[in-house]
Amino acid sequence: MRGIGPERPALVQAVKAALAAVLAWLAAAQLFDLAQPFLAPWAAVFIVEATVYRSLRSAGQQVAAVGIAVLLAALVEAVVPWQVLGMAVAVLAGLLIGQGRWFGDSGPWIGITALLLITWGTVTQSTLLVDRLIETVLGVAVGLAVNALVFPPVYGVRAQKVTWRLASDMAELLEEMAEALRGDVLPDGTESWTRRASEALVLVRQAEHTIELSRESRRLNVRQPAFLFRTPHDERQAILIGLRSTWPYIAEIAQTLRTTAGRVRPFDSPDSASLKAFATLLDRMAAVVRLRAEGTGSKAKFECVLDQTRAALDDITDRLQDTRSFGPATGLAGMVLPARHALRELTAA
């Protein structure tokens, strides 16, 4: 099972972080003529977040964290006479203060920044302490500007691809089970079906994450007006909810097929005609899954295939009612019920 790789977005963000670091250093050193402006590129790198909204939120946290670190370093230097002990106190106090949720991911850097200020001997010089704050604000501003103006991240296409991949894996599993049912003997590798259905949870979580990023990336994004999503966000969210709710029933079908293949009483395998009819149902369910992932663009075709799938399900239900042997009826019912539930979830939203 393959996911959608994050390599390209990660590369773009890494290049932007490098650009922000260089620009922040040049601005601090050349434009403002600040001495040793190491905090400017430091802050700029951490501001280049996954979305512009997160960059803005991180900006306030970063400035607050550095401001606290500067004050902490000055206080420790004034109170603690020995540098080694002061380093320990600064790190301990900084890490504890950084636990506050309002600092976010910047919290741990309070102790580290205070430690750097003490070890570099700049704490006793009030001018340099002010410079540290200026550097931080400058770096934050540069990082925020770079992330907002240079290819601001959007995740609409990526969220769409992850959802498609999830639907594709589900459809492939349904088709594989259908192909096996058309044979007289189920393959020995049926245990992989339940494993694959369980592994789909990884793709579900990935799809949920990218859809959340897609929604968040639209906030404060200058690219948004010109960026068109093929599938609206709300519809894509509904598609994911349907697919996520369907997977457990697909896993249940796979488990029942595995059990009936092993002739574990009372789950005896249904007759060959019933298995082939159920294979037709699985193929049509696979088509429904693929069309569902495409959204409203294929609504007419989706309704047509859905009617065919319901007809196939009704056919299996009639066969189940005509089955007089308890064992085969139990195995068939163990597949029909989750299939009915899966179809309901696919059409609920």
Automatic annotation (TrEMBL):
InterPro entries: ArAE_1. Its main location: membrane. The chain crosses the membrane at residues 12-32, 38-56, 68-97, 109-130, 137-155. The keyword Cell membrane applies. The keyword Membrane applies. It is found in: Cell membrane. It holds the Pfam family ArAE_1. Keywords: Cell membrane, Membrane, Transmembrane, Transmembrane helix. It comes from the Bacteria. It is a multi-pass membrane protein. This is FUSC family protein. The lineage of its organism: Bacteria, Bacillati, Actinomycetota, Actinomycetes, Pseudonocardiales.
